[in-house]
Amino acid sequence: MAKKKKNEWLDWIKALLLAFGLAFIVRAFLFAPIVVDGPSMLPTLHDRDQMIVNKFSYLIQDPERFDIVVFHASAQKDFIKRIIGLPGEHVAVEDNVLYIDGEPVEEPFLDEQKDQMKPYQMLTNDFTLEELPGGFEVVPDGHVFVLGDNRGNSTDSRMLGVIPMDEIIGKTSLIYWPFDRMQLIGKEE
Fold first, then answer.
1. Which residues contact 85 (CB under 8 A, 6 or more apart)?
2. Tally of structural domains, the chain
3. Fewer CB within 10 A of the end CB, N or C, for the chain?
4. How far apart are CA 32 and CA 10, in angstroms?
5. Name one GO molecular function term (predicted).
């Protein structure tokens, strides 16, 4: 009887160790939760939205324009922003229009904000990549240019410069909390 109880406890301990080990592997290498902190991605993401970060997506594919990514902004802080410029591209904004390599690019996720603006209002000040930290003519290899959707209230590549790909934790597109906001966020949103 005592031996049976001991084996039962041993089985439970093995099962728990296996579960913790799998949870650690999933969180460390595949997926992790993140909480949106602040208004920089409004209206797409709200303060305190909870999301899942896909940590392995950029191991098997290149980043794409308008992906929403989480990256290390400093040793203590991670930011969530949208990829706007890819390696080898020139980025500029003039009169609320994004230009990539001199061509205007639609940003459908900003349509709601633009519709609510007064005619003289600006989402962001005009800029060119050369005027920003780093003074690059194009986004360097291994880097991306990111902006928050709430252009008037976002610390992004306009202040931080281009973001090295090795600082990107992963891509995110799933809001899982609060329940009334549960959704997949696409590039067009």
1. 65, 91, 100, 129, 139, 144, 145, 157, 162
2. 1
3. N
4. 30
5. signal peptidase activity
Residue 29 has pLDDT above 60, yes or no: no
Asked whether residue 6 is assigned to any structural domain, the reply reads: no
106 vs 60: which has the higher pLDDT: 106
d(CA 72, CA 76): 8
Does the reported pTM lie above 0.85?
no
Radius of gyration of the chain (CA): 21
Residue 150, in any domain of the structure: yes
> CATH no. for residue 94?
2.10.109.10
Element (H, E) at 114: helix 111-116
The range of the structural domain enclosing residue 129 comes to 31-184
